[in-house]
Amino acid sequence: MENAFIIAIDLGGTSAKLAILQPSGDIVSQWSVPTDISDEGSHIVPNLIAAIRQQVADLHLNMADCLGIGMGTPGTVNVQDRTVIGAYNLNWAKRQNIGEAFEAAFGLPFYLDNDANVAALGEQWLGAGDGASDVVMVTLGTGVGGGIVSAGELLHGGSGAAGEIGHLTIDPHSSIQCTCGKVGCLEALASATGIMNLARLHLTHTQHQTEVSQRLAAGEALTAKDIFTAAEAGDAFSQEVVKQFCNYLGLGISHIINMLNPSIIVLGGGVSQAGEFLRANVAKQTEKYLFPALLNTYEIVLATLGNDAGILGACQLVNLAR
Ligand SMILES: [Zn+2]
Predict the structure, then answer these.
(1) CB pairs under 8 A, 24+ apart, for 92-100?
(2) I need a surface site. Which of 41, 241, 266, 293 has the fewest CB within 10 A?
(3) What's the CA-to-centroid distance between 275 and ligand 1, angstroms?
(4) Is the pLDDT of residue 93 over 60?
């Protein structure tokens, strides 16, 4: 089996990242293809299959040495059936039978999971999770996503929706509405969008007139990064906003720890670029809400794999199933 390899796919709305890896996670070849979402996304899977065929031929690999194909996709995945539905950024409103298409093309084992879960698995395996058996990843981007690895396996729950950390209700009295229709979801308060929601709300009652509050009041389009950078540099208004952000995120993470007792919580996504300043603040707020018996049982760390988390996690999907 010395030539054994795994094919990994991380499908996104604008492009798909693909890789051929050794089972150890060492990347042999990595490339990407644009995602063509026209015609209800009907070209996506045929394009991926063609891209893999081409690359395998170019590298003179033998498909008989391939242990399987793993893939992460947006949308609601049925892991057993290897189907996905509701991936609206791919124009996949209807159920897509992805497993059947790949098996018909290659005759190889094929494994599918949600992209947030797959990224969590990648970080747990070879990233900040350091191979620990119980790891939760919280992805702070435009929204808040997550994935839970418990006893070495991804949790899916009864209907595949385990790990929807972004829609934990963190403040039932909040006036901030989430895209899901509820108010006070973690995603509406502690994402890149959430911090701007908090900042605008804060403008109405803050005691601090600072450069950032004035720019915001003047209607300037600031970003989450602007708020974090200003807070770290001492802008009092931004510091209040970041404190509230970290308070909400710490409350959400405390629920995760109380419930699942992970040894590592990985913070990923664009907002985690705020780095140690964010991590240390969130860790402090988390402790306030924690069941005391769980203090000092976990670490909150920053993700380390960046954009490679998805393909490494997709590779590990194949390893775990072997
Ligand atoms: Zn929500």
Answers:
(1) 92/40, 92/41, 92/44, 93/40, 94/40, 96/41, 96/45, 98/45, 98/71, 98/73
(2) 293
(3) 25
(4) yes
- pLDDT surpasses 90 at 102: yes
What is the 178 CA–ligand 1 centroid distance (Å)? 5
Question: 187: CA distance to ligand 1 center in Å?
Answer: 6
Whole-prediction pTM:
0.94
Beta carbons within 10 angstroms of residue 21's beta carbon: 24
Q: How far is the CA of 102 from the centre of ligand 1 (A)?
A: 33
Report CA(142)–ligand 1 centroid distance (Å): 13
Q: What is the dihedral of CA 169, 170, 175, 179, to 10 degrees?
A: -50
Domains contained in the chain, CATH given? 5-122+308-321 (3.30.420.40), 131-304 (3.30.420.40)
| Long-range contacts from 220-224, C-beta under 8 angstroms, 24+ separation | 222/196, 223/192, 223/196, 224/192, 224/195, 224/196, 224/270, 224/271, 224/274
Cβ atoms < 10 Å from Cβ of 58:
10
CA of 253 from ligand 1 middle (Å) equals 16
Read off the amino acid at residue 277.
Answer: F
Residue with tokens 């690895």: 149
In the chain, DSSP finds a helix count (H) and a strand count (E) of 11, 12
